[in-house]
Amino acid sequence: MKTIQAVSYPVHFQEESYAALTNLIAKNDYSTIFVLVDENTFEACYPRFLEKLNTSRDLKLIEIASGEINKNLNTCIKVWNAITDLGGDRKSLLITLGGGVITDLGGFVASCFKRGIDFVNIPTTLLSMVDASVGGKTGIDLGVLKNQIGLFANPQMVIVDDVYLNTLDEREIQSGTAEIIKYGLTYDYSLFEQIKKDKYNNINKLIFRSVEIKNEVVLEDPREKYLRKILNFGHTLGHAIESFYLESEDKKSLTHGEAIAIGMICESYMSSILLNLSIEKVAEIKETILSIYNKIEIQKEDFSAILDYLKHDKKNVNGQINFVLLNDFEDYKIDCIVPEELIIQSLEYYNS
């Protein structure tokens, strides 16, 4: 696959990408090279990375605990301390090897350490390949509130090697598929058609087109002033649902993709009431999504708690909750204000 050029960095694919990383390391003569992993990517992905990276340089490994629950400031402090203890300075490089938690947190850590050191993203999950590692967003959660602390910072490069997907179970593949569905509904309907027909069987093609789309959007709107907001479709309510299940002591946590899938169904229903999306197309979206994801029964007594999480969404302005809704496939409207009663109706529609 050809390299995709982002605003200030390339996105390389497959085995050829490691040669580009080797050249980057040689060209910049980094003082120290750190690799950030969690316990899962250390075991399943780090050996592949070492095998493919052709360098005699010493790599300093930093391992954190996996999971969204660890995407917080305390973990950042541990990583900053580790970099400091291991001799890191302004000429250091941080390579992130992992899913969205690793790439988001690692990019944030690198961007803040000594006011910024170089970093490279190597996503190992479908979700991070098609979304988290591309676009320059870094950040951490504040409690269970998603991505409340962060900044825009671009890596030196992104490496997408689909071999790492072999380390994932189907639930993690499904999680990343939600982002591909989002691209299909808002930007390129052919992706949604492929998902309907083959689910995620033609994964390389789906990944490449998804990265292409995100790059096109980010190039036009790097700071999310207008067009880039379409990438939030399904995420406004989806993040609130994800946070609620993450915080709940008596409910099983959802993956990011599972929560966003629910959010897309609900926000499609809102679109049919407030805009021009036909209820038949809403049903098509719901049927396709539920052919991939298990149905989660959201209890009515939990609706109010989910609405409370919505009030903390980072896209809110002047206390108003802003949604991205659809007039049609590939036809969106941003900054839509949705009445609370319609949000509740959309959750009931999902449950029905």
Automatic annotation (TrEMBL):
Cofactor: NAD(+); Co(2+)
Enzyme Commission number(s) of this protein: 4.2.3.4
Record keywords: Cobalt, Lyase, Metal-binding, NAD, Nucleotide-binding, Zinc
GO molecular function terms noted in the UniProt entry: 3-dehydroquinate synthase activity
Residues in the signal sequence: none
Residue runs in coiled coils: none
All copies of domain 3-dehydroquinate synthase C-terminal, residue ranges: 176-316
Enzyme class (EC, first level): lyase
Functional note: Catalyzes the conversion of 3-deoxy-D-arabino-heptulosonate 7-phosphate (DAHP) to dehydroquinate (DHQ).
Name of the protein described by the UniProt record: 3-dehydroquinate synthase
Species, as recorded: Polaribacter marinivivus
